[in-house]
Amino acid sequence: MTLLIIFLCIVALILLISWGKVNAFLAFLLVSIGTGLALGIPFNNIPQSVYKGIGDTLGSLVVVIVLGAMLGKLVAESGAAQRISSVLMKLFGVKYIQLALMLTGFVIGIPLFYNVGFVLIIPLIFSVAYQYKLPAVYIGLPMLASLSVTHGFLPPHPSPAALVGQFHANMGVTLMLGVLVAIPAVIIAGPLFSQTLKKIAAKPLQSFAAEPLPESQLPGVFNSFISSLLPVLMLIVTTACLFAIPGDGPLKTLLTFLGEPGIVMLITIIIATFSLGINMGKSMQAVMNIYGEAVKDVAMVLLIVSGSGILKQMFVDSGVSTQIAAILQGWDIQPLVLGWLIAAVIRLALGSATVAGLTTAGILAPMTTQLHVHPSLMVLSIGAGSLFFSHVNDAGFWLFKEYFNLSLKDTFRSWSIMETIVSVVGLIGVLILHVFI
């Protein structure tokens, strides 16, 4: 009965948005409340689930998304994105621009939280798409596939890092094996799969469609790259230092603070305000106007993302994930496949890759000695399962849809299938490694 309720909930949400043309946030709110009641959450607890879902989701995202939008708008308006795309095109050419973006996404994705990476690379994708008249989804998906893989497979991202601890795996070994699994997953889900998406007519947010500037008005190459990629550099440095410094102390506390995504973005915005704004001849008022326009562009994105958080919270508060996991745990199946399957089903139900991974680990970790598989491979298997078929209850689904301004159909056809390919290829890679380890 629980699975039927979840299925009907997802169908109702899709019909309200696509057929009924209801605003996505309102649709989420209506469906989430109905789902919570159907799953047995008491009337007086429903409002708290709504508020907690919004708060937990936006609490970790709102600063990053808003500041990321500000940086993206400034990078576009100042000509920095134009300069970066020109340099990349000269190095790789139009023929290999997907490879350039894919490699950039993978390098950025290793130290960067997914949502931070997403809002940072969107301006670059859109700049290339507008300047060279290339399909935005076609050139952007390989880069986003790289981000997704690093988010689900590789420490120090929250879910893989937590799984490493729960299964007593070695983080370095997990990272190395994860890279081996990630490479084919990214190639197949990125450049190869995107060949089928050239005809998707995406009209990305005009926020990033800045008019091309004359060469003389563009910021320098060093200024453009450093200002745009400063968050990446800061996170790489702070992460490396945190691993290198033993024990605890004031320096480690400071680095932890400086490595927080929100703090990183705030420092970046302060520096970019001068490097790409004031120093390029713009007044402070003009820069602030750019930031104001950027916030308007992402307001609805924030609401929709918060709506997906409400639905996820209804599933969590009703105990759905525990029920589903209990059903699957009794199946007689290869441990690595079982881990992938439990994570995939919970991901389908809840939307959150992190919740899916951690919930699965909570079920299987106590049985580690009976599983007879390499702990690092179990971490990767669960990580792959947690990425399976992102859809309407996942914040990433709505970020992609709204930023690229796609229909639900085209979002399923591109984003959801890409995530599924990453997940399935990841499992296959883990099973192949299992033969040799």
Main sheet properties: none
Give the overall shape, derived from the CA principal axes: globular
Number of strands: 0
Low-pLDDT ranges = none
Work out the helix count. Answer: 20
Helical coverage, percent range: over 70%
- Return the domain count: 1
Order of helix and strand elements from N to C terminus: HHHHHHHHHHHHHHHHHHHH
What does this structure look like?
Keywords: Cell membrane, Membrane, Transmembrane, Transmembrane helix, Transport. The chain is mainly α and 437 residues long. The chain has helices at 2-18, 24-38, 46-78, 80-92, 97-109, 114-132, 136-153, 158-166, 171-194, 221-244, 250-258, 261-277, 284-317, 320-329, 335-350, 353-364, 368-371, 375-385, 395-404, 408-436. The protein has one domain (2-436). Helix 3 packs antiparallel against helix 13, helix 4 (80-92) crosses helix 6 and helix 15 runs parallel beside helix 18 (375-385). The longest helix is centred in the C-terminal third of the chain and has 34 residues, at 284-317. It starts with a helix and ends with a helix.
Give the secondary structure arrangement, pairings included.
Elements: H1 2-18, H2 24-38, H3 46-78, H4 80-92, H5 97-109, H6 114-132, H7 136-153, H8 158-166, H9 171-194, H10 221-244, H11 250-258, H12 261-277, H13 284-317, H14 320-329, H15 335-350, H16 353-364, H17 368-371, H18 375-385, H19 395-404, H20 408-436
In short:
This protein is mainly alpha-helical and 437 residues long. The protein has helices at residues 2-18, 24-38, 46-78, 80-92, 97-109, 114-132, 136-153, 158-166, 171-194, 221-244, 250-258, 261-277, 284-317, 320-329, 335-350, 353-364, 368-371, 375-385, 395-404, 408-436.
